[in-house]
Design goal:
The protein is α/β, with parallel strands linked by helices. It is built from 14 helices and 8 strands. α6 links the parallel β2 and β3. The chain binds dihydroflavine-adenine dinucleotide. Dihydroflavine-adenine dinucleotide binds next to β4, β5, β7 and α13.
Amino acid sequence: MSLMRSVLLRASRSAWLRDHAMRTPYVRRATRRFMPGEDLEDALAASRELERESVGTILTRLGENLESEADALAVMHHYLDAQERLRETGIRSEMSVKLTQLGLDLDRDLALEHLLQIARHAQTIGRSVWVDMEGSTYTGATIELFRRAHAQCANLGIAIQSYLRRSAADLETLIADGAAVRLVKGAYDEPESIAFRTRREVDQSYIRLGERLLSAEALTAGVFPGFGTHDRRIIAHLRSRAAAQGVGKERFEFEMLYGIRRDLQAQLAREGHRIRVLISYGEAWFPWYMRRLAERPANVWFVVRSALAG
Ligand code: FDA
């Protein structure tokens, strides 16, 4: 992991920096590259645009590690209202949630109950709900709660991070459950004892896990793979792997982040692949935005350029 990436990820946890950055106009301006706006309606408008280009969307409201049960309840109601807006507008987006947004730090059963309510409501509009994967202190609890919820609501999917050494074993459990799995590389700063630290190892792990998700055994079990990556080489590999195995394009999807690799998003859609773009919105964008900068430290120049332009 580069020094710059480490520094940015550490900065993502600084309350002082967060408070300053969120009040700074040029930083707010720079975030627009990765998010269409802070309101749900901004995300819906962007979804409508992308649907015109046959690109689906996943929506997530920013915010993690809430401090009170009332906050967690409010987040759950927000997602129910958002899904109602999907019903009203006919936009085909799905929601993605973080369990710490739903109260995981406060009471596991409460977080589970909130997740189930969102998933049951999503069933009434024919949508799935994704569970994001957070830092490694939450991995075990996230998978445990996900599996309990998935046993009752099959329209749930979960993110798994290829940088974690435990992910190969976790994937087998999820395959046995026939779950939808979004495979990502991982966005947090994890120690070498539990995570691969070099790009080569993380990529190799991604390919191994991706191939496993496309295996006949996984697909027969009902797994739906979502490949959450912008990595051209990995995408090309998984596409040819699926084609070689006769796996139809409707059996899996590619997922990318809003504002990143739009050319590749459009190309995959043109070539008949299922593609969804994750759109984040909300006011609590600081830690999320710092993780986007850390993924590609060259992005820091966008902030600098935005400051100069202002
Ligand atoms: P990699 O970082 O190797 O990037 C490949 C190429 O993509 C780069 O060379 C660059 O061109 C482009 N690129 C990637 N990131 C960029 C950026 N920020 N700005 C500009 N260009 C960029 N993580 C997590 O821990 N838990 C989760 O739940 C999720 N959820 C999630 C959902 C979806 C739909 C996606 C796409 C990603 C996530 N992630 C995530 C984030 C993920 O773990 C990872 O950090 C990013 O996707 C970047 O990794 P890539 O696979 O794109 O490869």
